[in-house]
Amino acid sequence: MYRAKIKLWQFCVLLTLLAVLAGCTAVQSPQAAQPANTAETNATLMKIYQQGYFTYGLEAQYRPFEFRDENDQIIGYDIDIANEMAKRMGVEARPVDTSWGAVIQSLYDGQFDFILGGMTATAERYKRVDFSVPYMDGSSGLLVRSDDGIAERQDLNGRIVAAGEGTPSVKQLEDTAAELGIAYDGEIRTFDDDAAAYEAIKTGRADAYASSIVSLLDWASQNPGFTVVPFKSDAWPAEYSAAAFRKEDQTLRAVFNGLMIAMKEDGTLAELQLKWFGQSFSLPNDPPVWAE
């Protein structure tokens, strides 16, 4: 009983902090912290403080965002971010390894509190979730064999192309074919995890794999004979990685946003980017939104 009272006290303090954060970040990010103070919007955050930990969904096959080390422990950029968030909140962070193709449905099924797994914010996903402020560049790239003659999107004509199941790269490949008037060799192949896609590229069962450019560069740096080319179109908006929350979890999202902006301002996020990507990135402080 005593422990529960302490957690409720922490929750009240955090709500006070949230109000301060909203005022401090209003100029930089008018959308970053504006929760409605209702039982529904506060429920998940209350639960987190009562139990002493939060859970977050990811698929642990997306290096360097999250992957398993030699001891089968999940490590990576997202893990470090979650642990830093938890430390600042006074709770623990617990990752939940899940299937990426169904990750949003799993969120609404209650399998975890939010998604932190290198997710690219898109208009289609925004119909079901609300995004945090960006915490990583989410630009796309194409993984190809170095000697295969693919240097730009036009070179995909007649080639076997692939993307991650349930990722924005699938639609980008579809848009590329329509925009450039090219045709692929068969249907776009989809893979539930990067490891299977990398094996397909190695064995010639795919000629190009579209995914996040930072994760592809990490893999190519460790596998001679492969390279990554930019996968961009003037018709596509800037892409960012963001955490995803249930529509009703506005208070939890606002707390995450406030802490993420603080991590940007005090240099913590830049340090983690240098650790996992070898460089830091300039990112906006407004959550990605689309007209409903």
Explained architecture:
By secondary structure, this protein is of the alpha/beta class. The chain folds into two domains: 2-137 and 239-277, Periplasmic binding protein-like II (D-Maltodextrin-Binding Protein, domain 2, 3-Layer(aba) Sandwich); 144-230, 3-Layer(aba) Sandwich (D-Maltodextrin-Binding Protein, domain 2). It is 40% helix and 18% strand. It is built from ten helices and 15 strands. The protein has helices spanning 2-24, 39-51, 77-89, 103-108, 123-126, 168-180, 194-203, 213-221, 250-265, 268-277, and strands at residues 53-58, 61-62, 66-68, 74-75, 92-97, 114-115, 129-131, 136-137, 140-145, 161-164, 189-191, 208-212, 226-230, 240-241, 244-246. A five-stranded mixed β-sheet has the order 11-10-12-9-13, with helices on both faces. The protein has a three-stranded parallel β-sheet with strand order 5-1-6. A three-stranded antiparallel β-sheet has the order 2-3-4, covered by helices on one side. Strand 10, helix 6 (168-180) and strand 11 form a beta-alpha-beta unit. Helix 1 (2-24) crosses helix 2 (39-51) and helix 1 (2-24) packs across helix 9.
